[in-house]
Amino acid sequence: MIxxxxxxxxxxxxxxxxxxxxxxxxxxxxxxxxxxxTDTYVVLxxxxxxDDPPSYYDNIMSIPKGCIVSRKVLKDxxx
Length: 79
Known about the structure:
0% of the residues lie in helices and 58% in strands. By secondary structure, the protein is an all-beta fold. Strand 3 and strand 4 form a beta hairpin.
């Protein structure tokens, strides 16, 4: 299935001494094939090449479930 996942990414400021430490995580949206879901994380894959087994994957992303803000199924898996 193909999903859109909105999640919070870690933010990092400039190095060195700062006079303000107000730095919030950044909201990100990622879209891809849902390849794996565990109790603690999901794995999205942007591209899959399946013409010659085994399959090959590109742009693999593991997102901790604790960072996920929302999920939307864009296309169900084929029957």
